[in-house]
Amino acid sequence: MGVTDRLYSLVLRVYPRDFRRDREDELLSTLAEEREDGRRRGHLRQIVSLLLYGGRLRWLRGTDGSWTATLRQGLMWGALVQIALNAGALVAKLLWALGGALLGGWGDRFTSIVVFELGAAWFCLGVVLTVCWPAAFLLLASGRRRSGLVALGAAMCLHAAQWLVMAGRVGMWPPDSLSWCSGILLPLSPLFAAWLWPRDHRLTVRLRIWILSLASVAYLLMFGSISVGDLTLYWVLIVAVPLAVAAMGLQSDPRWALATGLVVIDTGVTLALTIQGGDLHSGLLGFVLALILPVTVVLLYARRRRSALMA
Amino acid sequence: MREPAFLILAVLAQEDLHGYGIVKKVESLSDGEVHLALGTLYGALDRLGEKGLVEVAREERQGKRLRRYYRLTDFGATALRQEIERQSRVTDVARSNLEARRSTGPKVLEALTPIDAHRLEAVHAAL
């Protein structure tokens, strides 16, 4: 396989796996025939065209034409963006804490970590939402129903997640031992659920409702948001959307549940770092937790992926 | 119907073709103006396939090389015929509008000064 073929194979990684399985040889053959025919122009054009179509397939994947499935796809995309933001924040936080340990601290560590993370996450969320809402309305108005509904779902999910971040981060957590346990166990629970759940066994609607309800209550209890008083119902609604995404993901594909676990795992690391004094230098437990959580995620995902490939 | 889809249906109306065959025929049909990139080609083929306008006729495999031939379905032929008729109607209307515009030309000229009318007639003749 030549360099050009390798390049195109790399580009085709953008496409969903089932598409690649069915069409990769055909696409590469067509590209090879074009090259053999002396048409050497337009490599960049071909690559851009392939990337755009691959992106479109990914964007609309799982949409069977019904509006519920299409909207659900959008919610999934919103969750995925949220996962990416949280993963970015997690890496930044670990680097920040590691730098603090090496240099002897960052001064007011708690404030540094929270402000740094909040600022970055809110900025990115703001940018995505600024694009997502108008895009959804423009697409729907121009008659592109499927793409519009996906964008609408993503915007809804991200908007809800924006408030979820607020509920979880702004001084809501009480630093006592019970909350510390729940702060670690709750983020890990969807992860282990996804790990242990049989791949070929689908959840019933009733069980999904139970998961959703229990997770909502646990989350609200953990972060003390119930004490907000009149706003309790508001918070329940806000929290329910991302958890619904998690429950649906658990039902349709364990990989999504695994990924959704990453959305909340970041909170566990924040708690560990905060309770241990704000950086990795002041507590071994915080360091171990901060290191173990992402490593566990990666290992579990790799194991899941390997078993899926073998199946 | 968008232009790539129309052109693909048009070339498949003649014979079954594989991916690169379609690219070449479309380029030839459009006098070299349309060169389908692969994302556009396979995107259009997938959409046409979903609508039942084209289907896979056969496959030829040589090692890693795979040629998949596509053909126009009966439904696709009907859709192509309807699209041609629609475009013909639009073309007819456009042509008659243009002729009507030409026929109103002298009336406009009468209202102009002799010098302006002379210049406008020169432009008309040049066109």
**What value does the average pLDDT of chain A take?**
63
Q: Report the strand count of chain B.
A: 2
Principal-axes shape call of chain B? elongated
Largest sheet strand order of chain B: 1-2
Sheet with most strands of chain A: none
The CATH architecture designation of chain B is Orthogonal Bundle
- Summarize the helix and strand pattern of chain A as letters: HHHHHHHHHHH
Mean pLDDT of chain B: 83
- Please give the domain count of chain B: 1
Q: What's the alpha carbon Rg of chain B, rounded to whole Å?
A: 23 Å
**SSE-based structural type of chain A:** mainly alpha
Please describe what this structure looks like.
- The complex is a heterodimer of chains A (311) and B (127).
- Chain A has 311 residues and is mostly helical.
- Chain A folds into two domains: 57 residues; 244 residues, no CATH class.
- Chain A contains eleven helices and no strands.
- Chain B has a single domain, classed as Arc Repressor Mutant, subunit A, CATH 1.10.10.
- In chain B, 66% of the residues lie in helices and 13% in strands.
- Chain B has a two-stranded antiparallel sheet.
- In chain B, strand 1 and strand 2 form a beta hairpin.
- At the A-B interface, helix 2 and helix 3 of A face helix 2, helix 3 and strand 2 of B.
